[in-house]
Amino acid sequence: MRNALRSSGTIVFIAVAFSVTCRWAMGSSISGTIVLEKKAAKRVLAPAVYDLRGMTESDEPYDRASTNEFDQVAVWLESDHDEPAKPIMAAMGQRNRRFERELLVIPVGSTVEFPNFDAIFHNIFSLSRAQPFDLGYYPKGQTRFVKFPRAGIVQVYCHVHPNMYAAIVVTSSRWFGKPARDGSFNWSDVPPGKYRLMIWQKFVGVFHKDVAVPERGNITANVSIPVEDPENAH
Question: pTM value?
Answer without folding.
Answer: 0.76
